[in-house]
Structure formats: structure tokens, C-alpha cells
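User: Quick sanity check before I run a bigger batch. Here is a single chain. Can you write out its predicted 3D structure?
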Amino acid sequence: MAAAERRPLTSRLRDKLIAHRGPGLHVAVDEGHGPTVVLVHGIASSYVTFENVIPLLQADHRVIAVDLLGFGASPAPPDARFSLDEHVEYLERTLAGLELPEPFVLVGHSMGALISARYAARRSSELKGLVLVSPPVYLPPDIVGDPVDRAAMSLYRRVYDFLRRKRSFTLRNAAVLARMSPIKNAFEVSERNWEAFVLSLQNAIETQTTVTDVAAVDVPIEVIYGTLDPFLVPGGLRIIERMRHVTVHRIGGGDHLIRPPMARVIATAVESFTSPAGSHREAGLSGGA
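Assistant: Done. Predicted structure follows.
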């Protein structure tokens, strides 16, 4: 059977219908041959988030990297609410248009991890595996029992509310952080993407369903994050870490950016899903706890 025929007919027909809904996301990278890997960046960024990952995968994989709705070179429709469902819908539309021939590995970073988890919860049959990198898993503070975690959840919400209300402050300090980043253009909050930033923050990160999405995924999941990541709350991570189909890898000294040590762990996680051996548990990821 030809490669394009490997997916069930119902899935291929559904994707054709989705692809006709309208324009999708900007596909910034579609290179290489072999098992397919799709890379989804986070808020206030673009495909350049993965600049340290892509070279590690290109030799043996087809690597696809998109710009999310409202970021990079992707469209920002004037009526967009930039909700988690809307981000997922545009990702579905884009991948449907590419007519991927077989199950692929989905990798999401930061907000992209939340989007990828929702996508995977809906479409597990299309995936070989899911890799969640630096996922900001937040819960409503009033349902968190641990007082430290509850305080942390509340603090993040107050900070995000402050950033939305203080536009000039946020834009000015975002520009400073962007200049300091070792990955050029990995962080951008500007007048151009302000609406996408504030609405994604509110409607995709603060209003999220990651815990239940991860629980609903039917393929193995690798979670990778740095021990010094300032955007992660231990309480949310502990819940998904204890799920049976989740394996966790902590990068000592790592922060929120995908620097070379984290990139190597991500590449190994991807290869564990796509290697001929077929057992990602046996791949032996380096750099984990």
C-alpha cells in the first residue's frame, strides 16, 4: 500500500474537509525525509524556538515547523479569540492540508505543549508519540490543596493580569528580554502581535484543560523541562507526571528556552518513537533526572 494510503479512509476524508475551511498556519519548515515530526512553538515566539532541535532531526526525519496563529508569519484574523480550541483548529487545518501519510510525532513547547496536548487528545490515532516541552500546567487556585502551589498559581494569574493591563511596560521589557535571548527572535511581544499575545495568554494558557487532555491521550508522552524554568508550577506538573503513560525528563539547570542540552533530549525522545526498535522506553534519554 502506498504511503499516502496508510491512514484510514475516514481520517483522510475528514482531513480533506478540514483543509477546505480556509487558510491555515504558515509552514516555516518542511524539510527532510523519514518519519514525520511536527514542531509547535509557544506564546510570543515562532518556529525559531526549535533552531537547536531541527538540525538534530533533519537527517532522518521529515521536520515540519509552523508559526502559531497570530505569531511569526501566520495570519491574525481580526475576529480571532486565540483560544486553545482556535489554535488547535488552525493546527488541524494546516496539517490536514499537508496530507501527512502516516502517524507522526508531535512536539510542543510552552503554550505549544498545551495546544499539542489538546490536539493529541482529539487525534491520538494520528500520532506515534507526544513530546511536551516546558508545559505551563496551571490549575484554578481554588482547587489546589497545597498552600504553596495554590499561592504560586495565584501569583502567576496576578502577573499575567498585570502584563495585560500595563501594555507599555510589557512591550518595553519584552524588547529587553528579546535582545538578551541567545535564540534570535525566540521571544517577541510587539504592537504587531499584541492582541494575539494577550488573548492567547488569557484564553489558551490561563483557561486551559491540559490535565484532562493529557489523561485522554492514547499514545505515550514524554515531558521535558528545565529545573530552573520560572514559568512552571510544580503542582500542575505533579499531576501529569503521575499518569501511567507519561515519562518525565528534567534538565538540570535548564530554563524555559530550548538550549542545546534540552534540544538533545528532545531529539532523543523523538527518535525513541521513530526508531525501528519501536520502544521509546528503551531509548535511554540523556539529561533527565
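Residues 3-282 form a domain with the Rossmann fold fold (CATH 3.40.50.1820).

User: Great, the batch can go ahead then.
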